[in-house]
Design brief:
Elements: E1 8-12, H1 17-27, E2 31-37, E3 55-60, H2 65-76, E4 80-83, H3 89-93, H4 97-103, E5 108-113, H5 128-134, H6 154-179, E6 183-188, H7 189-196, H8 198-205, E7 225-229, E8 235-239, H9 243-252, H10 271-282, H11 287-293, E9 301-303, H12 314-318, E10 322-325, E11 328-331, H13 353-359
Parallel strand pairs: 1-2, 1-4, 2-3, 4-5, 5-6
Antiparallel strand pairs: 7-8, 8-9, 10-11
Helix pairs in contact: 1-6, 5-6, 5-7, 6-7
Length: about 375
């Protein structure tokens, strides 16, 4: 099931961004075989965790001729190959783009790196915080007078990395339908983080984003786009940017918008006063009490949930936004498809690997139904 049913993917196990991109492909119905290097570190994620769902796994020693030949034979039957090595490593292992696309000219070769395949930083190490720093995505995040604050590792690793890798691979597969040829997809996290900042660049060019960190409309500078503490220590998120939604907020808080005591939404000089006024009203109830107050309102106020309670919210429950895979609760595949819906995610190797390899014409290459996973 899923729109990518019938697409075959070989993924070299690695750090989170590339496995996340391959997970998306598996969620969409692609058949993914993850190859772990014997003696290597493998993927630094829990075994059978969310990034592994829907995949098969096998361990191969690429330093042995038999192991390298097996990967080559897998790729010869595949549509997509994904690796997340530093530039030059795949070539040294004998699984670079030229090696594999010579075997399979229709192959879409997805490369996931932090800095890209060329440039002064290409051979250097880095992590999410470094990529988004160079992209200008880290500097604006934080409060007034404070240092920039790392927004988890979501922007570089996953949004600008694995997500765009998956998009690039799917786009290349679509183009292949016209040309009949595969191609290399160079997905760099710094490029993806740059791309994610497109809207902010537009805001800056139009004069709508020019103040310091924490002093703009969408970075917590505006009192109508911020978080507020409630009486129980929980928080609510307020995002009433449009005037009509701002009015709905004031009505719910019992504030008279026409009163001189209530600053106007765009009265920048009185923003501190407005923030104090809103904060005092929201401090009067608990987070969940406010959630009930605003449940049917367009005031754009929502409870700030932890990752471990998000599945309990009625909206996420009705949309089945979370699923259990092997007893582990995790986010459900997204987006949703009407005619070719995604199948429920499965634990890695829940389907017999040997059966899959037989379908690929390689069943006799693995003597046991499943290879032993690395400890």
């Amino acid at each position: 099931m899923g729109p990518l049913q019938g697409v075959r993917v070989v993924e070299m196990a690695g750090l989170a961004p590339a496995p996340f991109g391959a997970m998306i492909l598996a969620d969409y119905g692609a058949e993914v075989i993850q190859v772990k290097r014997s003696g290597g570190s493998g993927a630094l994620v829990p075994p059978d965790g969310p990034l592994d769902r829907g995949k098969h796994t096998m361990t191969v020693d690429l330093k042995e001729p038999e192991g390298l030949a097996l990967v080559h034979d897998l790729v010869a039957q595949a549509d997509v190959f994904i690796e997340g090595f530093r530039p030059g490593v795949a070539e040294r292992l004998g699984i670079g783009p030229e090696d594999l696309m010579r075997l399979n000219p229709r192959l879409v070769y997805g490369r996931m790196t932090g800095w890209g395949q060329e440039g002064p930083l290409a051979p250097r190490a880095g992590h999410d915080i470094n990529y988004i720093a160079l992209a200008g995505a880290l500097e604006p995040i934080g409060r007034v007078g404070e240092r920039p604050h790392a927004p988890l590792n979501l922007l570089g690793d996953f949004a600008g990395g694995g997500m765009l890798l998956a998009l690039g691979v799917i786009t290349a597969l679509y183009e292949r339908e016209r040309s009949g040829e595969g191609q290399m997809v160079d997905a760099a996290m710094v490029d993806g983080a740059n791309l994610l900042m497109s809207f902010v660049h537009g805001m800056h060019a139009s004069g709508l984003w020019g103040n310091g960190r924490g002093e703009n409309t969408l970075d917590g500078g505006a009192p109508f786009y911020d978080t507020y503490e409630c009486s129980d220590g929980g928080f609510v998120a307020v995002g009433c940017v449009e005037p009509a939604f701002f009015s709905a907020l004031l009505i719910a808080l019992g504030l008279d918008e026409s009163s001189d005591d209530v600053p106007g939404q765009l009265d920048f000089d009185r923003w501190p006063e407005l923030r104090t006024l809103i904060g005092a009203r929201l401090k009067a109830k608990t987070r969940d009490e406010w959630a009930e107050v605003f449940a049917d309102s367009d005031a754009c106020v929502t409870p700030v949930l932890s990752p471990w309670e998000a599945h309990e919210h009625p909206h996420n429950q009705q949309r089945q936004g979370f699923v259990e895979v092997g007893g582990l609760r995790q986010p459900a595949p997204a987006p949703r498809f009407g005619r070719t819906p995604n199948a429920p995610p499965q634990v890695m190797d829940e389907v017999d690997l040997a059966s899959t390899l037989r379908d690929w014409g390689l069943g006799d290459r693995i003597p046991t139904p499943r290879t032993t996973k690395e400890s």
